[in-house]
Design a protein that fits this description.
Elements: H1 4-20, H2 22-37, H3 44-48, H4 51-63, H5 70-92, H6 96-117, H7 122-183, H8 189-216, E1 225-228, H9 229-247, E2 250-254, E3 260-263, H10 265-282, E4 287-294, E5 298-305, H11 312-317, H12 335-344, E6 350-354, E7 360-367
Parallel strand pairs: 2-4
Antiparallel strand pairs: 1-3, 4-5, 5-7, 6-7
């Protein structure tokens, strides 16, 4: 077994070889990929993409003495270009097998070229294998993540189009309902109220679906400003308060309205509103309580309800889109997902717990304004 001095020297020697012969490695790799994979008729510029940066990144990662194991340095070198390369390959029509194949070709070419200029040790050959193996793992993840992201973007476009098309006739219907309400006979009041309430609910569902898709593909940007907590809470809890009163459920909110936050007002309202609306919806008896914990750099909003509880399995997926509890009540299954994404847009996290038999506790943080 080599001692540590010899191993470090071997790694440094490999780094120098990679830097000295990077252009040769790149050119040979391009020729091989063109011969074996270029069914898409791509130019050398399109094929080259991030590979030169990756070769130099490998050399740099080998020179560093930052305590990072060799097994992780291939991932470290690839991290800076992984997403860009994956998005480019998806756009060019590469499938996952082709993406993997180009890295296997790169590994073979590196060992081949360096072996022509120096007598590689077994350790150096193993190091190349380990480095490229790490990149392969990172490559697969970045490709899959980017492919799924692109698919969600396309889905969001379709949903955006559909919601836009729905909103036009809905607007006409709401206007007509308003006119009917003004002109209707006294005994038509209940029917008109019912029509108006359901049209508003449909409008809210359309808005909810559109916001969920926009948040999912990061199409909504967070624009934080300084705003009073009271301005957020008053707007966010209005519907939950009304829904609770209709059912005879106690709805209590405890907070200091003068706390200054540094948040995107629309997203902050959405986060609070979806959590308290969820609590009010699933609590048929008892109480819904919202409390605000004032910490030095953030506030933590706690919402307690008296629903039928959630199982451990439900808790694991409750913040995912279209995942719902076992109550069987109507709904899109998007509210908690929207809340999670709105909270995460502020760099914070959201949590939930339940005994399983009675009640849930949701909590999340929002940043305070700097003093």
């Amino acid at each position: 077994m080599k001692d540590q001095t010899e191993l470090r020297g071997g790694v440094h020697g490999l780094a120098a070889l990679l830097s000295d012969h990077a252009q040769e490695i790149e050119n040979r790799w391009l020729r091989r990929v063109s011969q074996e994979l270029n069914r898409h008729g791509l130019t050398e510029t399109e094929l080259r993409d991030s590979i030169p940066d990756y070769i130099q990144g490998l050399a740099q990662s080998l020179r560093r003495h930052n305590g990072t194991p060799i097994t992780e340095r291939g991932v470290e070198a690839w991290a800076g270009t992984a997403q860009k390369h994956a998005v480019t390959r998806i756009r060019l029509g590469f499938d996952i097998d082709e993406v993997l194949r180009e890295f296997l070709i790169l590994r073979a070419v590196i060992i081949e070229v360096l072996g022509e200029h120096a007598e590689l040790t077994i350790h150096q050959c193993e190091t190349v294998n380990i480095l490229i193996g790490g990149a392969l793992r990172a490559c697969v993840k970045s490709y899959v993540d980017s492919r799924d992201f692109e698919a969600r973007k396309e889905q969001a476009k379709h949903i955006g189009f559909i919601t836009h098309e729905l909103r036009n006739p809905l607007s006409v219907a709401m206007t007509a309902a308003s006119q009917i309400r003004k002109q209707g006979l006294p005994d038509q009041g209940r029917q008109n109220d019912l029509l108006n309430r359901n049209l508003k609910r449909l409008d809210a569902l359309i808005e909810e679906a559109l916001l969920a898709q926009q948040l999912e593909v990061h199409a909504v940007e967070s624009h934080p400003v300084e705003v009073r907590l009271g301005a957020i809470v008053v707007e966010a809890v209005k519907a939950a308060d009304e829904a609770s009163k209709e059912k005879g459920v106690e709805f209590e909110v405890t907070y200091d309205p003068d706390i200054m936050l540094h948040v995107d007002p629309k997203l902050a309202v959405s986060a609070v509103q979806n959590i308290v609306d969820n609590a009010a919806k699933f609590t048929d008896h008892g109480r819904v309580l919202m409390e605000v914990e004032d910490a030095p750099a953030e506030i933590v909003i706690h919402v307690f309800d008296e629903c039928d509880g959630l199982s451990p399995e439900e808790l694991r997926t409750i913040f995912e889109p279209f995942k719902r509890g076992h109550s069987g009540k109507a709904g899109t299954g998007l509210g908690l997902s929207i809340a999670r994404m709105a909270v995460e847009a502020h760099g914070k996290t959201i949590h939930a717990e339940s005994t399983g038999s009675k009640g849930c506790h949701f909590w999340f943080a929002l940043p305070k304004a700097a003093h």
